[in-house]
Design a protein that fits this description.
The complex is a heterodimer of chains A (about 775) and B (about 190).
Chain A: H1 9-65, H2 68-77, E1 84-90, E2 96-101, E3 117-121, E4 124-133, E5 136-146, H3 148-179, H4 181-200, H5 214-309, H6 315-343, E6 351-355, H7 356-373, E7 377-382, E8 388-392, H8 393-409, E9 415-425, E10 428-437, H9 444-447, H10 459-465, H11 471-481, E11 485-491, E12 495-503, E13 533-537, H12 541-553, E14 557-561, H13 564-574, E15 578-581, H14 590-599, E16 608-612, H15 617-623, E17 627-630, H16 635-643, E18 654-657, H17 661-675, E19 678-681, H18 684-693, E20 698-701, H19 710-717, H20 721-724, E21 728-732, H21 738-744, E22 750-753, H22 759-770
Parallel strand pairs in A: 7-9, 13-14, 13-15, 15-16, 16-17, 18-19, 18-20, 20-21, 21-22
Antiparallel strand pairs in A: 1-2, 1-5, 3-4, 4-5, 6-8, 9-10, 10-12, 11-12
Helix pairs in contact in A: 1-2, 1-3, 4-5, 5-6, 6-11, 7-8, 8-11, 13-14, 17-22, 18-19
Chain B: H1 2-22, H2 34-48, E1 49-50, E2 63-68, H3 73-81, E3 91-96, E4 107-110, H4 115-125, E5 131-134, E6 146-151, E7 154-160, H5 161-166, E8 170-171, H6 173-176, E9 180-182
Parallel strand pairs in B: 2-3, 2-4, 4-5, 5-6, 7-9
Antiparallel strand pairs in B: 1-8, 6-7
Helix pairs in contact in B: 1-2, 2-3
The chains are: A alpha/beta (about 775), B alpha/beta (about 190).
């Protein structure tokens, strides 16, 4: 619906005129009519009031004396007035007293009078007038007058007024219709122009001016505005064209960037996928490669031993080569996995406190054979006041051993020394481990590549000195992970110094440190090893070596002492099952030692076997020797003699749980030598069934198995009270990560990685563990590197 | 391994569903051994039985499930119970070698045995809050609380309510709904 605002200005002007005229006329007519009405009403009321007063006067007495007839007559006299239709007199208490009516029923009279005054009601005027007598109201008179005559006149007036009103409006309409053009036409012209411009975008149009009034000014302004718009539109068009060109260029650029971004995203995704694939691959590799290699190494060693025992000399060197090559391969695999893990940021650190002395002692023990090989002297020095350090012990040891083994390898008839000194750099406290040798040194051009993977001095170095070329790279990674550094300095021909610098306790590296998980609780002595330990007292190191080899193979623990004093001390410490004693030793000789042993009630019961070049059997027997062997000794006879004093193996068998038959068989064989009875199971479920038949004294379990795996098996095992105390040793090719460690925490006694210990070593370490002794130190890493 | 754990979880659920809804008992033919099913049922019994306050020990104290005369049941039971808890308590399975040790369990499983043996075992646990479960047909009639019974191909159970009441143990009506209920005196059968 169109509102007033929307209609044309022409009609608007007419409408405005009409509205104004009609309002003015209406006001005039209305006022006239109203005035007429009011004036007329006033005069009528006045007339009636006068009549009422007269009647009141006339009826006062009649009321007073209650003369109805008189009252009626007075009222009847009012009938002279033709418009009066009813009259009535009421008593003081409001009862009708006398009445007169004309043309209407008496019943229509008001029953009671109302307070005085005039009332217009339905074409009649009603009038109540009190009748007062002597200041006392004695009654009321009521008059009713017909007003039809008055309204008739008013209607006639109204008709005339309406006629005038219409005529006047018609005149106004005609006039305004003609006169409005003066204003509307220029306006409409302007509007038309504006419409054309906006429809046609033709900014060259101009409006025509007709006068100098406001509309003329408006036209001027409009035309001027049009001129400006025309100019601006032109400028705008130029600018737009430039912008469009620019936008096209931008779009091209955005598209190309989007392409690059997509490519980058795809590349990132591919990289992440390959990183994940690499992690998975590494985890699988570690298990899948180590399992068969473990079997290769283990069986070649067994074969070699068996060949030696059977007197077959010929295959021994070949078997040794297989074993050595296998070990080298295992070392290489371990190193590559270590390095890959470090490169991928997957290395987990296990922080522990360890004393510097402990580390140095272990290092001296582990590296002594290698140092001896090249006739090097090994010196360890620790600055006073250096207590313990907070490191990942295994990784630190691996780094340090690597430096030491390098030093030993590249030095002949020289000195290899370790100096541990605290230093302060930029206010931070560090501990420096300097490994110095007097060997061949490193050429300057090799120095740069020193810590790069696979960068031994040159290819010939590998052949001559062995090693994988990864050790230093791994060491550097490990040291950096622990918040430290590793550096090298050398003068070719004069030796080299490698320095590991680690922050002292209290300083944590930026790398999130794994919460240290305490080592599994030591278990109570649950199983006695089948063979007790044998103390070998001899000043000749070759005898130590020989005895160790002969006896360890038979399942004995061998402890050696190089002289009489040490022998006595060790005997009191460890209470061995038996002692083999040489007689001719520098310092305290064997006779003295034997006497001292037999006079000490604490150790007197330990059988002593004399193994000597002396033939004084008599003297030995007198002094209390249990057996006497003259060197050279046949190993079988010695073993036979020592067996007599082996403690009885009374405990239950060892249960080996492994799904890989070759691995299992190897473990079984290695353990059978030492622990006697061994039972086996291929998975957790089978192992549980075995348990119900026979309770073992020890369980060796692999983690990765089909069906019920090692984790579930161990968890189930620990639910049953009877089995809860059975020691469990994990032997797995799986790389143990933090999650695994947490799952197994408190449930197993030890975790061994396949290939880290050979069969005899494993058996020995397990025996050691079961005795509640020092849990074996992690085997020295076998990745002894070359530079 | 994950799959296996999942299967075990399903087994427990399956048996629960069976207990609550069907009452048909469990069929050993569903790919699980009879012992596995009995293990799962045993665990479910513990969830429908109320021990008196404090009878299961303080917080963290293990609920001991004793196994008497059914050594081969131990691995199955331990496998079913791995990772489970009973009223928030960890679970321990105990191999009971001598009857005297039976009193100290919360649950006692007695393997198939003769009436004299059963009576002796039940005498030893009399007055203790021990839920006795037996693998003999007449176990409940001899005073045990729950007996596994075979019904054709299915394993069902019979409950001796008097015995449970004497030991102060409450049994959920949901469970009784599925059981054959034995009462001394005028015997009446549950549904």
């Amino acid at each position: 619906m169109r509102t007033f605002r929307d209609i044309s200005i022409r009609r608007k002007l007419v409408a405005i005129n009409m509205v104004a005229s009609s309002v003015a006329l209406s006001l005039a007519c209305g006022t006239f009519l109203a005035y007429e009405l009011i004036t007329y009403r006033k005069s009528v009321t006045q007339q009636l009031s006068t009549a009422a007063q007269i009647a009141a006067q006339g009826t006062t007495a009649a009321l007073t004396f209650e003369d109805r007839r008189s009252a009626n007559e007075t009222l009847a006299s009012l009938s002279a007035e033709p418009n009066l239709v009813a009259a009535c007199v009421y008593t003081r208490d409001g009862r009708p007293f006398a009445a007169f009516t004309r043309g209407e029923s008496r019943r229509d009279l008001p029953r009671h009078p109302v307070p005085s005054g005039a009332m217009f009601e339905d074409h009649h005027l009603l009038y109540f007038q009190p009748i007062v007598f002597d200041g006392d109201r004695i009654g009321t008179i009521y008059l009713k007058r017909d007003l039809r005559d008055m309204y008739g006149r008013l209607e006639r007036y109204a008709g005339i007024v309406l006629g005038v009103w219409l005529l006047a409006l018609l005149a106004a309409f005609l006039l305004s219709s003609r006169l409005q053009r003066v204003i509307s036409e220029p306006t409409l012209h302007l509007a038309e122009m504006a419409g054309q411009v906006s429809a046609g975008r033709d900014y060259s149009l101009r409006a025509v001016k007709r006068g100098n009034d406001e509309i003329g000014i408006l036209v001027d302004s409009f035309n001027e505005m049009m001129g400006q718009i025309q100019a601006r539109t032109r400028d705008l068009d130029y600018a737009r064209e430039a912008l469009e060109r620019h936008v096209v260029e931008l779009c091209d650029e955005i598209a190309s960037r989007q392409r690059v971004q997509d490519e980058l995203l795809a590349a990132k995704q591919a990289a992440e996928e390959s990183s994940h694939a690499k992690s998975v691959f590494l985890a699988n590799m570690s298990h899948e490669l180590r399992t068969p290699l473990n079997a290769i190494i283990g069986y070649s060693e067994m074969l070699r031993e068996e060949a030696e025992e059977a007197g077959l000399r010929k295959p021994v060197p070949d078997l040794e080569r297989i074993s050595v090559a296998g070990k080298h391969l295992l070392t290489l695999i371990n190193s590559v996995l270590d390095l890959s893990k470090a490169e991928a940021g997957k290395t987990e650190l296990l922080w522990e406190d360890v004393t510097v002395t402990q580390i140095l002692e272990d290092a001296a023990g582990a590296l002594a054979p290698l140092a001896r090989q090249n006739r090097n002297q090994l010196n360890m020095y620790c600055a006073p006041g250096v207590g313990s350090i907070h490191v990942d012990v295994v990784k630190f040891r691996q780094s340090l051993y690597n430096l030491l083994s390098n030093a030993c390898k590249f030095t002949r008839d020289g000195t290899v020394s370790v100096n541990v000194v605290p230093v302060s750099v930029d206010g931070a406290a560090y501990l420096e481990w300097r490994v110095t040798d007097t060997g061949i040194g490193i050429a300057p051009d090799q120095m740069r590549k020193l810590f790069q993977p696979f960068s031994q001095g040159d290819a010939s170095t590998t052949r001559k000195y062995g090693g994988t070329g990864l050790g230093l790279a791994i060491s550097r990674r490990f040291c950096e992970l622990m918040g430290g550094t590793i550096s090298a300095a050398s003068e070719p021909g004069k030796g080299a110094t490698f320095t590991i610098r680690l922050p002292l306790a209290g300083q944590r590296p930026a790398v999130a440190a794994a919460p240290a998980i305490p080592p599994p609780a030591r278990i109570a002595r649950a199983v006695e090893p089948r063979a007790g330990s044998i103390l070998v007292v001899d000043d000749d190191p070759t005898v130590h070596d020989l005895m160790r080899r002969t006896l360890a193979k038979e399942g004995f623990d061998v402890v050696v002492a190089s002289n009489g004093e040490e022998g006595l001390r060790r005997a009191r410490e460890i209470h061995p099952a038996a002692i083999t004693l040489d007689v001719f030793m520098p310092g305290m000789d064997g006779w003295t030692v034997l006497g001292a042993l037999k006079n000490d009630p604490d150790v007197a019961a330990i059988p002593v076997v004399l193994v000597t070049i002396s033939d004084d059997r008599q003297r030995g027997c007198v002094l209390g020797a249990a057996e006497f062997f003259q060197k050279p000794v046949e190993p079988e006879r010695l073993v036979e003699a020592l067996r007599k004093w082996q403690p009885e193996w009374t405990a239950a068998p060892v249960l080996v749980v492994d799904d890989d038959p070759a691995s299992r068989e190897m473990t079984v064989r290695a353990l059978r030598r030492r622990f006697g009875s061994v039972i086996e199971a291929a998975d957790g479920r089978a192992a549980l069934t075995c348990l119900t038949r026979q309770k073992p004294g020890l369980i060796v379990v692999d983690l990765v198995m089909p069906g019920m795996d090692g984790f579930d098996f161990i968890a189930t095992l620990r639910l049953v009270e009877e089995w809860r105390r059975i020691p469990v040793v994990v032997l797995t090719a799986k790389d143990i990560d933090r999650d695994d460690r947490e799952r197994l925490h408190g449930l197993v006694q030890r975790i061994f990685r396949k290939g880290d210990c050979d069969g005899v070593g494993l058996a020995a370490e397990i025996a050691d563990l079961l005795k509640g002794g020092q849990a074996c130190a992690p085997a020295p890493p076998k990745c002894l590197e070359a530079r | 391994m994950g799959l296996l754990v999942h299967l075990r979880g399903c087994l427990a659920l399956l048996l629960m569903a069976g207990l609550v809804a069907g009452g048909d008992g469990a069929a050993p033919s569903a790919g699980y051994s009879e012992e596995e099913i009995k293990g799962a049922m045993l665990y479910n019994f513990t969830r429908f039985v109320d021990w008196p306050a404090g009878a299961l020990g303080g917080e963290g104290a293990p609920v001991v499930i004793g196994v008497l005369g059914a050594d081969s049941f131990i691995p199955e039971l331990a496998t079913v119970l791995r990772g489970k808890a009973i009223y928030g308590h960890p679970v321990a399975v105990r191999h009971i070698e001598r009857i005297a040790g039976a009193r100290n369990c919360a649950v006692l499983f007695v393997g198939a045995a003769g009436p004299k043996e059963i009576v002796r075992v039940l005498q030893s646990t009399a007055g203790a809050h021990v839920l006795t479960i037996g693998d003999s047909l007449e176990f409940a009639r001899l005073g045990g609380m729950i007996a596994f019974i075979r019904d054709g191909n299915r394993i069902r159970f019979e409950v001796n309510l008097d015995a449970a009441e004497r030991a102060g143990l409450g049994m959920s009506s949901k469970m009784l709904h599925l059981a054959t209920v034995y009462r001394a005196g005028p015997a009446r059968a549950g549904n």
